[in-house]
Design a protein that fits this description.
Blueprint lengths: L3 H7 L5 H17 L4 H11 L2 H7 L2 H13 L5 H11 L4 H11 L42 H17 L4 H10 L3 H13 L6 H14 L5 H7 L7 H9 L2 H4 L16 H9 L16 H12 L39
Helix pairs in contact: 2-16, 3-11, 5-8, 9-10, 10-11, 10-12, 11-12
Length: 337
């Protein structure tokens, strides 16, 4: 860990308006930053057989992993896992066989035509109902119709966009341009799959790319640049006063990824925090590490400090035991009228 004197000596290289935000976020990283984010990703994906799938260029296994990841969106991990354990999931070969047997709907022709499917499992409806009785989308035992659509969309993406080789698709896109651009391109590309947003794509891909960094250094460099702006991250940047201080106030949502949004603010701050302080093997510029530290500091099931259950957002934070309490502006998100 750098000494205070070392930190002060580096302030001269930081724009004056960023000195305080960097100091605050750096303190959060010291308190909540993971010292083994890469090792954890590598261990988890090794045990799940995902890294073997990368080595063997096994797109069907990567499909299974990505679809399982999508199953955990918008619901507790326990409920999602229990449902899959009871009802099963869908494999790449399941979708392939179903499309070959039942795929008469014109929307199923390729990835670009699979839009506005609208299948709803509960009501048993879609936007092309004459084809519904023999539609493969309706065959799968997933939790809802959106996930059934995700399974088909992801299959078509791998078949048509990645030309059957997802590892090659990642490789090509990871090599083009600066790492930050490559990270955005990969997230947006996979995020075009129905039911897999850019945010979910970045979350999955960052872990995969970091886990493969030893054998594929470019993948690791790109994965380090992938950040996920959720409500916890946005709200911390608001509550601390960082957004107001940098004239970057905005509502949570798409604006977080626009110029001067949370994404830009976090990257500017991360670029001034040397992540090697926390693990010498880390890249110096490691936005994903910084973003995860902020998330861990806030999340109820992690360190549980900066979130709506702990803070009355009409009044502002009163947690004097918070590690950055004296640095924080403690701004309410919804000030009492």
């Amino acid at each position: 860990m750098r000494s205070d004197a070392s930190y002060r000596s580096s302030e001269a290289a930081i724009a004056p308006e960023l000195v305080w935000p960097v100091q605050l976020v750096q303190e959060i990283c010291r308190y909540a930053g993971s010292h083994n984010i890469i090792e954890t990703a590598r261990s988890n994906l090794t045990s799940e057989g995902v890294l073997r799938a990368v080595r063997q260029r096994d797109s069907s296994k990567l499909f299974d992993w990505l679809l399982e990841t999508a199953n955990y969106q918008g619901i507790s991990d326990y409920v999602a896992s229990q449902y899959m354990e009871k009802h099963g999931t869908v494999s790449y070969s399941d979708v392939q066989q179903a499309l070959a047997t039942f795929g008469s709907c014109e929307k199923l022709a390729d990835f670009t035509t699979f839009v506005d499917c609208g299948y709803e499992k509960t009501n048993r409806t879609c936007t092309n109902e004459p084809e519904l009785p023999c539609c493969p989308v309706a065959l799968f035992p997933l939790r809802n119709g959106r996930l059934n659509q995700t399974a088909v969309s992801l299959f078509l993406f791998i078949r048509d966009v990645a030309q059957g080789d997802l590892v090659r698709w990642i490789d090509i896109n990871a090599r083009i341009g600066p790492t930050r651009w490559a990270a955005a391109r990969l997230s947006a590309g996979l995020g075009a799959v129905f039911g897999i947003s850019d945010k979910v794509a970045a979350l999955a891909l960052s872990g995969l790319l970091l886990a493969c960094s030893a054998s594929r250094p470019r993948w690791g460099a790109v994965g380090a640049q992938m950040v996920v702006i959720d409500t916890l991250v946005h709200n911390l940047l608001h509550r601390t006063g960082i957004l107001r201080h940098l004239a970057a106030e905005h509502p949570y949502g798409p604006a977080c990824y626009l110029d001067s949004g949370c994404n830009d603010v976090l990257r500017k701050i991360a670029g001034l925090i040397d992540a090697r302080e926390f693990n010498p093997s880390y890249p110096a510029d490691f936005p994903r590490f910084v973003q995860q530290a902020i998330w861990r500091y806030c999340a109820e099931l992690e360190l549980d400090f900066c979130n709506g259950r702990r803070i009355d957002d009409r009044l502002g934070c009163r947690q004097a035991h918070c590690a950055v309490f004296d640095l924080c502006c403690r701004e309410p998100i919804k000030p009492a009228k």
